[in-house]
Amino acid sequence: MFSPARTRHLPRPHRSDVLIAAVGLLGGTVLSLLGLHMQNGRLFDATWPALIPLAVMSALELLRRSAPQTALVIGTLALVADQFTRGNLATLLMYTDLMYAAVLYGTPAAARRIPVTTFLITVGVTIGFLAWFRDAEALLIGIVTGLVSFVPALTGVSVRNHRDAAETARLRADQTALLAEMDRAQAVTAERARMARELHDMVANHLSAIAIHSTAALSIDDPATSRDALGVIRENSVDGLAEMRRLIGLLRTGAADPEPSSSPTLDSLDALIGQHRTNATSSGLTCTLDDARTGPGRLPAPVELAAYRIVQESLTNALKHAAPGPVTVRLGQTKDGLTVEVSSVLGDRPGSRAPGSGAGLIGMRERVALLGGTFEAGPAPGTGGTRIWHVRAELPVEEGRVAS
User: Fold this and answer.
1) This model's pTM is above 0.70
2) What residues pair up with 328 in beta bridges, in sequence order?
3) Does 259 fall in a domain?
4) 48 within a domain of the structure (yes/no)
5) Structure confidence by residue, pLDDT tens digits, 60-79
6) Rg for the chain (alpha carbons), in Å?
7) Does 183 fall in a domain?
8) 134 neighbors 104 (Cβ within 8 angstroms)
9) How many domains does the chain have?
10) Residue 186 falls inside a structural domain
11) What is the three-state SS of the chain?
12) Neighbour count for residue 327 (Cβ, 10 Å)
């Protein structure tokens, strides 16, 4: 007893195949009833024997997609059997369709083999009947053989090639759309990372100063100290709010320039260091700028923005972590690019003066990596046996990109 799970079923015939089979069977039957035959004087000269190949060919039309090669083999035998009857035009036409379907829906090997085989059969039949009849009218048999076998096979090859080309184009379009979506996702991720860096670098400095001075105002019971702290808090609040408004404005306008012209440059370092001096007064930090650049003109905007943000983030870290002492910012320029160095006295306190997210160093590394530069940050020996925290970034400048 067979298990239902092991029983193999052919797929249901396509509705077009059912329609072809029905029309072929009905049309062939009508032709037989009208007495329209293709030949006379055959072995089976009655009307009904011609209906048997017709019925077989109609049934094979239901397999033209699911089993095209099997249908072609059985159909060839049915066509040969039809030659011993009066014949039917519908049987012949349905055979040409089976030949066409065997090339179109069959395996790639069959699609290559069938046209060659039918061509050789056509040539062989033509030569054979010419040698037998020794009459030019024998060419008509070769022509009919070609029309029944080779021409449908050639048509199937043409349609299959067009279908494969269309499928290849569709797959290529899908692949292009997928790559475009991947590029879009990467662009969105990169833009989000850039926005995160900008937001962190702009706000962290102001909020760190606010946190430090608000702690001082709460812990020291001195009206003058509280007044100075509140002044610093207000100044940083206003500046931070202005920076936030600038960034929000850029986002709303959808600026296409990845580094907008309103971004800070190295010319703004004096103001940044002046602000740091104000914020770091109560922490015992003194900030100095050593600008040793000798190159003429301004650097490309992405380089200047990266250098500014690196200095800004380094000063913020010094404000939160450094011990009282000097904070030095050095700028140098060579033929290869710009060098930024920031050093501060390494503190020994267990915690920082203000909470941090830990994303500052990551953001600086990302900025330098995007420009193809090198970045180092960590403890280093200082003068007089002290330990310093040293940040160094080398930002390459492509030749010819320096603006005059």
Assistant:
1) no
2) 288, 343
3) no
4) yes
5) 999 999 899 999 999 999 99
6) 43
7) no
8) no
9) 2
10) no
11) CCCCCCCCCCCCCCHHHHHHHHHHHHHHHHHHHCCCCCCCCCCCCCCHHHHHHHHHHHHHHCCCCCCHHHHHHHHHHHHHHHCCCCCCHHHHHHHHHHHHHHHHHCCHHHHHHHHHHHHHHHHHHHHHHHHHHCCCCHHHHHHHHHHHHHHHHHHHHHHHHHHHHHHHHHHHHHHHHHHHHHHHHHHHHHHHHHHHHHHHHHHHHHHHHHHHHHHHHHHCCCHHHHHHHHHHHHHHHHHHHHHHHHHHHHHHHCCCCCCCCCCCCHHHHHHHHHHHHHHCHHHCEEEEEEECCCCCCECCHHHHHHHHHHHHHHHHHHHHHCCCEEEEEEEEECCCEEEEEEEEECCCCCCCCCCCCCCHHHHHHHHHHHCCCEEEEEEEECHHHCEEEEEEEEEECCCCCCEC
12) 26
Read off the pLDDT of residues 137-154 as tens digits, 9 standing for 90 and up.
778 888 888 999 999 999
Give me the count of residues in the chain. Answer: 404
Q: Which residue has the tokens 């395996």?
A: 107
Structure tokens that stand for 234 in this block: 């207000």
Residue with tokens 């090639």: 161
- Domain range for 104 is 15-177
